[in-house]
Amino acid sequence: MYITKRALAITVQEKDSVYMHSDTIMVTGKPEHRITRAYYNARLYKSDMAGKSDSIHVDHKMGLTELINLSRFSSDDAFALKRKPVLWNIDNQMTGDTIHLISNAKTEQLDSLKVFENAFLISKDTISKDAFNQIKGQRLIGLFKDNELYNVDVIKNAETIRYLRNDDNELIADSKIKIRKY
């Protein structure tokens, strides 16, 4: 199946609708091994997650969703360098050169997340209205529980900004840490 112009595909996952929108959507394969490709300004919506990238590829049998930046632009194109996949989950925003979401194909539950190259995660501080905890590094691996990101490992050249509070929830310090591994 090949859909163009205001292409929209809806699938059911975990009793929730997953919407995929882009300029072009192509669905291939037999029902037991379906592959969906959305490209050129692709977006993904779900009740607890949203994402956008230049292209989204979903292998439904493997439970792999890839948000990628297509290299269709020349390397000296400034827009191509800034067009990175973005993923939002609850109170978190993640970016990187490529993002993989891994689901259990049988239970349809989100299992893990991998952000390749230039990983960046930002989340709103739970107490302050204007503070954001941030972490960046070369790669990021995250684990999901009940579709919420609960554990994150940043690999290589990690940097973090966090807000530290005492038992009375008063801000006592902000912390900036750099860990370099060459």
Notes on the protein architecture:
- The chain has 182 residues and is mostly beta strands.
- The chain is built from one helix and 15 strands; from the N terminus they run E-E-E-E-E-H-E-E-E-E-E-E-E-E-E-E.
- The protein has a 15-stranded antiparallel β-sheet that branches.
- The longest helix is centred in the middle third of the chain and has 5 residues, at 78-82.
- The protein is elongated and about 55 Å long.
- The model has no long low-confidence stretch (mean pLDDT 80).
Q: Could you write a compact summary of the structure shown?
A:
The chain is mainly β and 182 residues long. The chain contains one helix and 15 strands.
